[in-house]
From TrEMBL:
Gene Ontology terms, MF aspect: hydrolase activity
UniProt KW keywords: Hydrolase
Lineage top rank: taxon: Bacteria
Name assigned to this protein: Lysophospholipase, alpha-beta hydrolase superfamily
Gene3D superfamilies listed in its UniProt record: alpha/beta hydrolase
Organism: Nocardioides scoriae
Extent of the signal sequence: none
Residue span(s) of domain Serine aminopeptidase S33: 45-256
Pfam families named among the record's database cross-references: Hydrolase_4 (PF12146)
Length: 326
């Protein structure tokens, strides 16, 4: 067991390792990422592994998801990206990168570490929301560079495939971001911030889930010009068509519900993304893709109410049985 692994804030069977990445290409000092693992229980070697990737204003805390994969015989790892969650350092802008490809460094480091600990086993990348955009772009770049192993599958949980809002506004907004990002990349956009999604989740608001509000605020983090410009460039690459090189499963809610205040409807819909956009652009992943709308699911389908959450896990179990049968 590597001495680089340290006890994690999640306690119990969770440990983490800090991945030092060196100087930030965006000029905010030295950056690091943090890889978290769930220790394997007694008995046998894993038949595969999982690398989980969070979304914007998020970090890894979903131990139920890790327990599910462990029960499937898969070693579980989760990555807190640079400037996110456990990895963010004082003075750094939360989640900020000027190019989503900057994350390739920590993703490759994590992949190498998992492959070293579990040589020869297939790995499934699981990614949520913005992570669900970062991961396909990374896998497409790996495939074009002639590298696919050990990745054997991709699971996307409500991936962010397009900018929300009226179609007529997306073009002008994107053009404005490109110009402004050159002169004021860290400028905070004056966008409405809502606690509706956070209110539906966190135990302090009668939700089911307990997590660190400093790492995942109820109303998220401010959105910067440079970061959103990077996301829009990523959207454009996706819309032109990718080939992630592996089978994909896309899980999403069956409906979107935007609201200023939390209600019962907020608990049974995606309150963050437009699920029609996810449906529209999923075909751009390339290769074999399975799409499952989960009735009454939240934005994070694995943080949904018990019944839709159970459905999401059932679909994931069926997909894993089919694609990791050997």
């Amino acid at each position: 067991m590597s001495s680089s692994w340290q006890p994690d804030v999640l306690g119990g069977s969770y440990q983490h390792q800090v991945l030092e990445l060196g100087p930030d290409p965006d000029g905010e000092g030295d950056v690091a990422a943090v890889l978290v693992r769930r220790l394997l229980g007694a008995g046998g070697n894993p038949r595969g592994a999982v690398l989980y990737l969070h979304g914007f204003a998020d970090y890894f805390f979903q131990t139920e998801l890790a327990d599910f994969f462990a029960a499937q015989g898969l070693a579980f790892y989760a990555l807190d990206l640079r400037k996110s969650g456990r990895a963010r350092r004082p003075g750094q802008t939360a989640h900020y990168v000027a190019d989503l490809s900057h994350h390739d460094v920590e993703l490759e480091r994590s992949l190498d570490l998992v492959a070293t600990e579990h040589p020869g086993v297939p790995l499934v990348v699981v990614a949520h929301s913005t992570g669900g955009l970062i991961a396909p772009l990374w896998l497409d770049r790996r495939r074009r560079a002639g590298r696919t192993r050990p990745v054997a599958g991709l699971v996307l949980n409500s991936p962010w495939f397009d900018l929300q809002g009226a179609p007529r506004m997306r073009g002008p907004i994107t053009q404005a971001l490109r110009v402004l990002a050159k002169v004021a990349p860290l400028r905070v956009l004056d966008l409405p911030r809502s606690t509706v999604y956070g209110d539906s989740l966190h135990v302090s608001r009668e939700g089911e889930w307990n997590y660190d509000l400093a790492l995942r605020p109820l109303d998220g983090f401010p959105v910067t010009v440079g970061w959103l410009n990077a996301v829009r460039r990523g959207h454009a690459q996706l819309h032109r068509g990718l080939d992630v090189g592996v089978p994909s499963l896309v899980l999403r809610s069956d409906k979107t519900h935007y609201a200023r205040e939390h209600s019962e409807r907020s608990d049974r819909a995606d309150t963050v993304l437009d699920v029609k956009q996810i449906a529209r652009w999923t075909g751009c992943l390339g290769g074999e893709t399975t799409v499952v709308p989960v009735t009454d699911a939240r934005h994070d389908v694995f943080l949904s109410l018990p019944d839709p959450r159970r459905d999401a896990y059932r679909h994931l179990d069926e997909w894993l049985r089919q694609h990791l049968a050997t």
